[in-house]
Specification:
Blueprint (H helix, E strand, L loop, with lengths): L1 H20 L14 E5 L2 H6 L19 H6 L2 E5 L4 E5 L4 E11 L9 E3 L10 E5 L2 E3 L7 E4 L3 E8 L2 E9 L6 E9 L6 E6 L11 H7 L1 E5 L3 E5 L8 E8 L1 E5 L3 E7 L6 E8 L10 E9 L4 E10 L2 H7 L14 H22 L3 H15 L1 H16 L1 H10 L4 H14 L9 H4 L1 H14 L22 H18 L6 H18 L4 H36 L1
Parallel strand pairs: 1-15
Antiparallel strand pairs: 2-3, 3-4, 4-5, 6-7, 6-12, 8-9, 9-10, 10-11, 11-20, 12-19, 13-14, 13-16, 15-18, 16-17, 17-20, 18-19
Helix pairs in contact: 1-14, 6-12, 7-15, 8-15, 9-10, 13-14, 13-15
Length: 549
């Protein structure tokens, strides 16, 4: 029973983490090849959504990235909030810079400087307009710029169509911008506004591979629907069909999301076209959100451009914290546990004014103390199972030809001796969702980004010295060895005592050092507990032996 349980847990961990370790690279198609694919929202979701146009992939005009000459002629202004400095450009009435003073870059050549999220020449919110069969490339128009107290107002015209856009920081918000606009010259007909979301954020992470894996465009109505950049080939266009309450582009830790102002004007969908490959991985994709515009020509939406910081996103109340869901196939179990753990760790850090390393140590200690009563019950169940082993063997020998009778007699034996055959399994299973949830918490929570502790430079990255995973493996071996003391000889259990710690150490070598720290502390704290359990088990076995004799 215990051996099969340990193997099952190990297999579950491997299944959960292997997809992140072996991400397939995107192959480069033959020159000139391109195709368009749609990723649709499930029918049940679409049925619940309001009747808003959800256009198929609309081919935007060529790249919205500014040409050097045009960029040099553009007029700029800035919006400064408590957490960000946004640069607005008259070229396409767009955002051309987003600097966050609270976060530092860990990637050369900007290492140590405040995070600048947008790539040079890239822009967000640059508009294009589809009127009938024509696409008006307003993203290449030089708008007039009028500075206001909260931001700026832009006015521009192209192809007989005029556009006025007001961009302003929302009062009291660190990373939120409101956009109001009006299209002139529609002649009483509607139009489709293409809102540019850029081509993907600049890499500001030491773990560039992990950051590239996080690149995606996400749409949300009732549940997030995502399209990873890694699925796009150069020149390939893919679409997410809405309607969506918000559409976002994201990296591992940062997100830019355009959010609908109300349910009457939802985003129809999103379109992404793969850019040139960067090495083995797709790191750019020109991305657009589609917003239907009525005959009156008016539209409005909001932009959140900043960190995927849990408390910031939760305050918006738009489920933006679900843009990076945790758990893959284990999501229904892992996501609630991960949210609870994230909230608890952030609360402990803020309330106790402790570094996250000490918070993890206290958290590991608290979990083990909480599981103490269950471990005691498991020990008693294990002892009871050992005590009835001779009787079980007699029943198995007597009824080996009658499986149904064998099952009945086994259940009768359990009832008579008040033995729960699964009582020793529960304490082993309970820590697993927490450990698995912590794997995703450290992989996605920006609070741990760059958080150092003792010799560990970053709790969200692996230990460069490999000390903490070795300590974790050693503590796991000591705990397993101690758990076998006083038990009947079992060659299989003895083998697992050695093999499991080695396998787990190898598996955890490149995992976040914070995860290894938690697991090592959890094992070390369990050593004296296991020693006391062994003593109690020996006493209980001696008592039961005396009763039977």
């Amino acid at each position: 029973m215990e051996r099969r349980l340990v193997v099952a847990i190990l297999l579950m961990i491997v299944v959960a983490v292997l997809p992140s370790l072996f991400l397939k690279s995107t192959r480069r198609p033959a020159p000139g090849s391109a195709d368009t694919t749609h990723v649709s929202v499930p029918a049940a979701e679409s049925a619940r959504a309001p009747a808003t146009p959800a256009p198929r992939a609309v081919a935007p005009a060529p790249s919205h990235t500014a040409k050097p000459a045009a960029a040099a002629a553009a007029e700029t202004t800035t919006i400064v909030t408590a957490g960000a400095r946004y640069t607005l450009t008259s070229l396409g009435a767009a955002i051309s810079g987003a600097e966050f003073s609270r976060y530092r870059s860990y990637a050369p050549p900007t290492k140590g400087k405040p995070v600048e999220l947008l790539r040079p020449g890239d822009r967000m919110l640059a508009p294009q307009l589809v009127v009938g069969r024509d696409t008006v490339a307003l993203d290449s128009v030089q708008f007039s710029l009028e500075r206001t107290a909260e931001g700026a107002t832009f006015r521009g015209r192209s192809g007989g169509v005029g556009l006025q856009i007001s961009v302003a920081a929302r009062a009291g918000a660190d990373y939120l911008i409101d956009v109001n606009g009006e299209v002139e010259g529609l002649g009483g007909q509607g139009a489709l506004l293409l809102v540019g979301l850029g081509s993907g954020f600049a890499n500001v992470e030491a773990d560039s591979l992990g950051n590239y894996r996080g690149y995606a465009v996400v749409g949300h109505r009732t549940e997030p629907v995502s399209l990873g950049f890694s699925k796009l080939k150069p020149g390939q266009t893919m679409a997410l069909d809405g309607p969506f309450d918000w559409v976002a582009v994201k990296s591992k830790y940062f997100i830019g999301a355009v959010m609908s102002a109300d349910s009457a004007q939802l985003f129809g969908g999103a379109v992404a076209t793969g850019g040139p490959m960067s090495g083995r991985y797709q790191t750019t994709a020109a991305t657009w959100a589609t917003l239907p515009v009525g005959p009156d020509g008016k539209f409005r939406y909001s932009l959140y451009l900043g960190p995927q910081e849990y408390r910031q996103l939760r305050r918006l109340g738009r489920d933006l914290d679900k843009a990076s869901p945790y758990g893959w196939i284990f999501k229904p179990i892992v996501m609630p546990v991960a949210i609870w753990i994230t909230q608890l760790l952030l609360w402990m850090h803020q309330t106790l004014s402790l570094a996250y390393g000490w918070v993890l140590i206290l958290f590991g200690l608290a979990i083990r103390l909480a599981l103490w009563p269950l471990n005691q019950k498991a020990m008693m169940s294990s002892v009871a199972m050992q005590a009835i082993q001779p009787l079980m063997k007699d029943i198995q020998t007597k009824h080996k030809e009658d499986p149904q009778r064998l099952q009945q007699e086994m259940m009768k034996l359990y009832r008579e001796h008040k033995v729960n055959p699964f009582g020793s399994c529960l304490p082993m299973l309970l820590p697993f969702p927490i450990l698995l949830a912590l794997f995703f918490v450290f992989a996605n929570t920006i609070a741990f980004r760059g958080a150092s502790f003792l010799w560990l430079p970053d709790l969200s990255l692996r230990d460069p010295t490999y000390i903490i995973p070795v300590v974790m493996g050693g503590s796991m071996y000591a705990l397993s060895k101690l758990g076998q003391m006083g038990m009947p000889p079992n060659p299989q259990a003895k083998m697992m005592t050695t093999v499991m710690p080695i396998m787990m150490t190898v598996l955890f070598l490149n995992f976040a050092s914070g995860l290894n720290l938690y697991y090592a502390v959890s094992n070390l704290v369990s050593l004296p507990q296991q020693y006391l359990i062994n003593r109690a088990r020996l006493k209980e076995m001696a008592r039961r032996k005396g009763l039977t004799t």
